[in-house]
Every structure is written in structure tokens, then in C-alpha cells.
Design the sequence.
């Protein structure tokens, strides 16, 4: 028997609790983070199993421990390969087949199950709900399924002092059902968003800048050159807040008169204006947002979550990462992972599997104008305006390694 519930998955008595995880040993957000905080020993065992290659789609990790007068059973059920990637319906299906057999062997039990992959994984709840009912609906056990709102809020309860601090700083807390919640995130991410600044800025023409984790000087110079050509008062530049790439991008965009949207990995209450930006900072042209808990320090899963939000919010994504292997997961599940049209900087030595992922995403390489030598962003601006590429775009030379005319990239 299946019944549906809302609230904290740990408040409901259960013999078996299902936790949705990835296969690389990270529990950084949502339900998984709540499980990690509650059962730290379980997390250590799970991370070790991932490192050994023992956790795969359709092959969950099971942890059991006697706790007072009961046995706690946690099933870490993978819905994605990597924490940076969206969840996969195929993985949910494999997990449910395994789970059915596991439950049947346990006899009369009560199972607490989250909305598999529908929190930060971005899957459609109605589709997953049907999958759960088809796989488990006829079992003679009690299965409590917690709806997506419970997954989104897992571990996000705020104390009175935090709420007061948010109010004092003028920070808005937006949940998926609230007015003002970004429309482009609905159905892709149900994350609670904390925002300071102009909410309306999230609805204008927007370019997300996606750099690598450890950018070279060449990459930094290239992406700043591109932003310098793109940034103007009618364009929003969506970026992070790292020192090497993001802050030079923010400075350039503000100097050019653009509105900047900063998507933090950390909690918004940890944000402060860095010294290298104070002379160009303009409160009227900066919006800061975070999907982390307000006082959350940096954590591994946060970077992937921030990237997913950027790719959902933006009209266009400028990828400067020379080895964006993480894009392959979005290529398999584009409808939930990527809204933006992708443009990328090709450094000439890109691996074939990455090229294939970019082709699946209909990504386009950027080029330089023959006349000026500057990055030619006409197609990017055309994409922002939702029009066909302008005629002058034909004057640019695409950055493809095989080009005989001009092999220069935006970074050259």
C-alpha cells in the first residue's frame, strides 16, 4: 500500500529509509545531505563503497545499525552518476526494480521513500510517481512516499535568528510555489532560492559564464574578452564568485554597464563584497542568489547545483571550461538539465567524447572577427534576442580545430 506524505522523512516511523544519491560518494544537498548529517557513519561507509566502484544505478548501498530498540536500515539508491549531473529516469527504474526485490525479502516492513530524483535531480514528479506506483503499488507493505516539497526542504529548516537576519538584510526566500520564483527553474529544480537585489533581473536576457574549476591564464583572458564584447546595459551576466575567473568577469560586466547576477555556491549570509570589486560595485546592478542554506559553507555538491541553476536560468551559456566532461550528463537529460543555448571556447585539443556531447547539445564554437580580431559575439547576441543569427556573424571564423583560415580562439 502506498500513501503520500509531506514533511520530514525522519519524523515518520519506518523500518527502511530510502536516500537518493550519486555514485561518487558526495552527499551535498537536499535529502542526501539530511541523511549524511543524521547518520555520519553511514556516509563514511557509502563513500568508501563508491570509491570501490560498488555503488551503481540498480546497485544501491545498504547500511544497517541497531539504534536503541530498533534496527535502522538506510538504502542509498543512485539516481545519477555524478553529483554535477541531473538524475535519470532509467536509473530510477533500475533502482525501483532492485528495491521491490529487497522489500519482498524483508516481509512486513514500513518504507519511507522520497520523491526519487525530483528534488535537486530535476525529474518530473508526475512521471516518477507513476513509476513508483507501477513498481511497488501491489506490495503488501506500507510505503510512505514523501512529495517533492519535502525533498526540497530537507535540511533547510531555519531558526528565528537566521530568519531575522535575512529580513534585516532584505534577502528574499523563494520556494517553488511562491510568486516571484524563477519560472525557468520550475520543473527543473525545486530548490529554495535566497535572493538579494532585483528579482526582475532574473527575467531579462541573460548570459551564464561557466568556467573551469582551475582556469589557466589563457582561459581567464579569453572569457573576459568575450564578456567585454557581450556586456551592455540590456544584458544580464550570470556568474559565480570565484577569485580567478568570476570576479574579473563581474568587474568587466559592471564597467560595461551590464547587470550582474551572482550565483553563490555558499550560503547568502556568508556573502560580502570583495575588495577587488568595491570600486565598481553598484547595488542597483547586482543581484545575488544562492540555493544553499543561508549559512552553508562551501561543499562539493554546491558547485554542481550552482551550475545547474545557471544552465536553467540563462538564455545563453558561455562555456570556457576546456574539458567540460560534466556536460555529458546534461546531454542525456537535456530537458531537465539545460535551458540555455550553449556557446563554447574550443582550445584545439578537445577530446572526441566531449565534442560529441557538445554536438548533442547543439553547442556552437565562438570565433573572432577578421576585421577587429575581437571575439565575434553576434550569434550570442542574436540568440539573446531570440532571432536568427545576424548577417555580420558570417564574417567570423568558427573556432574549430580543423579550420585552415583562422585557428585562433577567444583565448588567443
Sequence:
Amino acid at each position: 500500500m502506498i500513501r503520500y506524505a509531506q514533511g520530514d522523512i525522519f519524523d515518520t516511523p519506518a523500518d527502511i529509509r530510502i536516500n537518493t544519491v550519486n555514485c561518487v560518494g558526495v552527499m551535498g544537498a537536499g535529502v542526501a545531505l539530511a541523511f549524511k548529517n543524521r547518520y555520519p557513519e553511514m556516509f563514511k561507509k557509502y563513500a568508501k563503497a563508491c570509491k570501490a566502484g560498488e555503488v551503481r544505478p540498480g546497485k544501491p548501498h545498504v547500511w544497517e545499525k541497531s539504534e536503541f530498540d530498533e534496527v535502522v536500515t538506510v538504502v542509498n539508491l543512485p539516481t545519477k552518476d555524478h553529483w554535477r549531473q541531473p538524475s535519470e529516469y532509467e536509473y530510477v527504474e533500475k533502482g525501483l526494480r532492485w528495491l521491490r526485490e529487497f522489500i519482498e525479502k524483508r516481509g512486513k516492513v514500513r518504507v519511507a521513500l522520497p520523491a526519487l530524483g525530483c528534488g535537486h535531480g530535476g525529474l518530473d514528479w508526475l512521471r516518477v510517481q507513476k513509476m513508483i506506483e507501477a513498481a511497488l503499488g501491489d506490495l503488501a507493505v506500507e510505503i510512505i512516499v514523501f512529495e517533492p516539497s519535502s525533498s526540497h526542504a530537507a535540511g533547510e529548516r531555519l531558526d528565528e535568528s537566521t530568519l531575522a537576519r535575512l529580513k534585516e538584510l532584505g534577502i528574499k526566500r523563494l520556494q517553488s510555489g511562491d510568486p516571484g520564483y524563477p519560472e525557468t527553474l520550475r520543473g527543473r529544480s525545486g530548490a529554495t532560492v535566497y535572493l538579494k537585489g532585483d528579482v526582475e533581473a532574473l527575467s531579462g536576457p541573460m548570459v551564464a559564464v561557466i568556467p573551469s574549476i582551475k582556469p589557466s591564464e589563457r582561459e581567464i583572458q579569453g572569457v573576459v574578452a568575450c564578456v567585454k564584447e557581450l556586456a551592455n546595459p540590456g544584458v544580464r551576466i550570470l556568474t559565480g564568485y570565484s577569485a580567478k575567473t568570476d570576479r574579473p568577469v563581474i568587474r568587466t560586466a559592471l564597467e560595461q554597464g551590464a547587470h550582474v547576477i551572482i550565483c553563490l555556491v555558499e550560503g547568502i549570509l556568508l556573502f560580502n563584497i570583495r575588495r577587488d570589486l568595491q570600486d565598481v560595485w553598484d547595488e542597483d546592478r547586482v543581484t545575488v542568489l544562492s540555493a544553499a542554506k543561508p549559512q552553508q559553507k562551501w561543499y562539493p555538491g554546491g558547485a554542481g547545483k550552482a551550475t545547474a541553476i545557471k544552465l536553467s536560468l540563462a538564455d545563453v551559456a558561455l562555456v570556457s571550461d576546456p574539458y567540460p566532461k560534466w556536460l555529458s550528463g546534461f546531454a542525456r537529460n537535456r530537458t531537465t538539465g539545460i535551458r540555455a543555448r550553449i556557446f563554447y571556447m574550443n582550445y584545439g585539443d578537445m577530446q572526441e567524447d566531449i565534442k560529441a556531447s557538445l554536438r548533442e547539445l547543439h553547442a556552437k564554437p565562438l570565433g573572432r572577427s577578421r576585421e577587429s580580431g575581437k571575439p565575434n559575439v553576434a550569434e550570442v547576441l542574436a540568440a539573446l534576442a531570440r532571432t536568427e543569427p545576424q548577417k555580420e556573424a558570417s564574417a567570423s571564423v568558427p573556432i574549430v580545430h580543423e579550420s585552415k583560415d583562422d585557428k585562433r580562439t577567444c583565448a588567443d
